[in-house]
Amino acid sequence: MLKKKRGKINGIIYNNTAYYKGKYRYYPTITDLKGILEEIISCNSTTNCLRVTPFYINEELNHQIEFEEYMFYIECRDWFDEKDQKMHILDCLDSVDTPRVLNDMNLGAILYPLCKHNDVVSYQKALKVYKDSLREILLKMMKIAKSEMKLKEKHLPFGYFCFEIQSD
Q: How many domains does the chain have?
């Protein structure tokens, strides 16, 4: 059961991903995700961390893939410098829990930003950059899904991307 946490962003996430008083979770589509990101950007707040994990589901094949290597994870800290930021990105890129490895430092900078607590402007900027990069990211994930799931043209109408969104 999901609990509604304190804070503006936590409330937005709960209101957009939980239903039946938190008993069930809703996994937003790309359209919904963009709306949620806009709502978060507009609330002029930050949170300790926000995680968006994409996955692709194909109903025809009754199969899904999680794309942990394309997870967006923004963390707010009291302090960090460029070296900390770079190490954070490298740590996230070098995750041992993922079946695939992402070796793109530029994309890592988009997917794994750090910001300072209460630095609303940097937080909003990171969310906007991620939102603007979703088209490119989705195309990369679709290529992987086609390959790993051996998708054919006839399967495509039955598939879609969803996102698990968590915040603290």
A: 1
